[in-house]
Amino acid sequence: MIKDLPDYIAEAARTPYIVYNGIEITDYGEGYCNARIKIEDHHKNLHGSVHGGCIFSLADTVAGYTAMTEGTVISTLN
Question: Which of 21, 32, 35, 46 is paired with 62 by a 20 to 30 Å CA distance?
Fold first, then answer.
């Protein structure tokens, strides 16, 4: 358990990959993290739907920050 969690919203807002993909951490606490992406044209595939890589980038970001709320710094895989 971490007594005082870092400001992950501000940290994410300074992380180039997260900013580039338009990911925004909206809420977090011990054991959870919520984030969102405002879908733009560059997030879409040739068929006009959201590209799978965009969805997985969001999931990867949330998984990583959720782990950090438990005091673990990780690289997410698979």
Answer: 46
Q: Is the pTM of this model over 0.90?
A: no
Using CA atoms, how far apart are residues 57 and 23, in angstroms rounded to an integer? 9
Residue closest to 51 by CA, chosen among 43, 39, 42: 43
With contact defined as beta carbons under 8 Å apart, do 64 and 12 qualify? no
Q: 3-state DSSP call for residue 44?
A: strand
Asked if residues 18 and 30 have their Cβ atoms less than 8 Å apart, the reply is no
Q: Where do runs of H (alpha helix) occur along 1-78?
A: 8-13, 16-20, 52-69
CA atoms within 13 A on the CB side of 16: 0
CB 48 within 8 A of CB 12: no
- Name the token pair of 40: 């733009």
Mean pLDDT on 1-26: 89
